[in-house]
Write a structure and sequence with these properties.
alpha/beta; TIM Barrel; eight-stranded parallel β-barrel
Length: 286
Amino acid sequence: MSKEEKITIPDILKKKKRKEKIVMLTAYDYPLARILDEVGVDIILVGDSLGMVVLGYEDTLRVTLDDMVRHTAAVSRGAKRPLIVADMPYLSFHITEEETIRNAGRLIVEGGAEAVKIEGGRKRLPMIRRLIDAEIPVMGHLGLTPQSVNVFGGYRVQGKELSRAEELISDAEALQEAGVFSIVLEGVPVEIAEIISERLTIPTIGIGAGAGCDGQVLVSYDLLGFYQDIVPKFVRRYADIYSVVREAFSRFTSDVREGSFPDDSESYHLPEEVKERLRERFGVKR
């Protein structure tokens, strides 16, 4: 597939069959989406992680549907080739089936998403089935589901106990049967992710779930090194944007205070005859 061809859900499913790794990254705005489009990622996830990495919240629970629609629309304007998946935020799908469809529909119609992602296992099956019946594709999400942070007691690896491991495997199979086209596995032991990936015919996309998944996703701000104080174990930093941006801002601040910015080449000038007339009229000396 060339970089110009639009990626669809059938394309993602074919990658699993061909054993081709799937690349997914997050984006929350137009400029980042454009870059991800250019480098050829397969899926852009407009994650509710924007609450923590962009909006400054302590968790994802405060992200609203309006937030997600706005940021998804920005991403869809910037990226034309990747499949665009939008997170359904907290309390947007924990309600009635009719409201769930309406909320997901906003992400598709207003936001330009091509699929939505829902956290949770078998308890979400009724909502997932209704969405799929409404022709809204769904990506599942199991393991460390950030919207359940209060239930889990923090951001902890899931599935270390045998009963919980079996539950995750069972949930994954139930989600596949319900019709999701892929499942994100977050913060689960490698062995569980491998079992799920082998048993399912739909792709698994890991984040802190090892190399045995069919694809990988990271929060782009983590990959780029925007933050110095929060570095999850599963993150590999490919840049130190924090230091680059801080240095640039620091240099600008110094240049302005020293009077070296802007210089003559960075300024606009009037034609000489206009300047002369102004000098004669207003007495401007410089």
